[in-house]
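Researcher: Please translate sequence to structure tokens.
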Amino acid sequence: MSALEIKPAAPADMAFVKSLSPRLAHVPGPAWHTIEAMEGFQDRYMSSTFAPASLDGAQTLIAWTTDGRRLGYVHMRPGKDGVSDEPCGYVSLLALTEDAEGLGVARRLMAEAEAWARGRGYRFLSLDVYADNKRAVDFYTSGGFRPETLRLVKPL
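Model: Translation complete:
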């Protein structure tokens, strides 16, 4: 792989960002939801996350190879801490192409997300991950994230 560059997303990158929606929908999620439900959720979530009204202070960064291949992206936005109500950073989406997995691209994008949050003066950077997505849970905890709440669901 050539060297990695991280650049702010441009309007022309939205097709790439949206192309990763199926990968996000197919990560391990709650067993009681069908893949169709997960795909619908992911499409709705991406549409609302990247809607113009939700972009105030948000940033999307794209990981590129120097030969011009996009490898993944991270989208950060301002949020509020659930306990103190103070402003904090929130990673709403992180996705990679399949061939970028295991190359350190996600770590690099998360380092950029942390720098974004620190640059805005936030004390916290938060995110959500499905409890069944063990690979993602392990990735984030190895990067210093800790569980704060646990939402329990009982299918009826």
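Researcher: Any highlights?
Model: Residues 140 and 146 are 8 Å apart (CA to CA).
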